[in-house]
């Protein structure tokens, strides 16, 4: 079975990110000053669970204890503060942002441009990180047009279609054959609803998650929502592909009766509906996070989960990709930058390079009820990831054969980046667009997109 990463597609994603990073003058490089790897140093790190999550907090503290035992000169202070679009700049200016924090791919170009992340290029020969064995295209996402590096990949995903294998069987559909076109998605939804009474399709429509999914559907139907021409970013929200996606949603709601009636939901809530067998198909992140939402959080039998590449029309461009980049505060001292990279390596990458760490982590994750071996986009090289899967083979608790079609097709599907300017704000306008067509049978899609285009143009202009 193939476990290759998204070679061709991720390269496209990376190129898009790098191109935009060069759309404005990047922050001046911050060459590494001399640092002392044995110096006493304290850093703050994101990801500390709140006190009302005692099990997760204990696991976090245990990890801190192990790290500090290995690096006794480094003191870790956990922080509940993490990425927040509205507070990031203020936290950075006020000194409350952790030394290291994960940020979305959508934000990294602007963060680099605005000088809001430390230039870590000259620290990356630290052997604890083993950078040469990371997925090289993902590492490129955090670089500017001069090749300077401002972060390392923490996680990656691409949008896929999830479907309930049990409901497929009940409707006479082959669970080994995911839909590859939007016509098939619609046809399968009709068959499932007719045979089982279950909603054949859904996507979230709130918390900016609807716009996020509509963007992915637009890619699959032939258009992006922003165009980059040299150094100019132009909104392209009002396009035929997005209109086609909204029309499909409208038709499934009003003509077919197959769209979920409970639709004012965010991503995790739609995942819960899917896990409960109330939704047969939906667009979602192909990631361990989503699989754990299904299985660990909502108790779904993993054997019922099907996943295929994002369906396409004849004009489809590919799928949407994203994830998180771990950056380091530009206010960090050289010793803190070096220490933060050790923390990043310890918490994110050690499992891929050390068999004992991989096995220990997989054993603990399995005991906690997590899905082990779920299909996802590796942040390390193909060879390293294959080796990792071999190490943890005894703890893989999902049948990867169920996703053979996905493994066979994913390398051939291009992966494109999310909108790079005002993405979340544009997603919010598209939440409203989806809600409009789901609540009004006579919604004017052309007018809706014209209004969304105007809003997107203003949002991009406000970003400079």
Automatic annotation (TrEMBL):
Query: What's a Pfam family in this record?
Result: SBP_bac_1
Q: Signal sequence: where?
A: 1-27
Cite the entry's keywords alphabetically: Signal
Q: Which PANTHER family match?
A: ARABINOSE-BINDING PROTEIN-RELATED (PTHR43649), SUGAR-BINDING LIPOPROTEIN (PTHR43649:SF16)
* UniProt name for this protein: Extracellular solute-binding protein
- According to its UniProt entry, this protein's organism is Microbacterium helvum
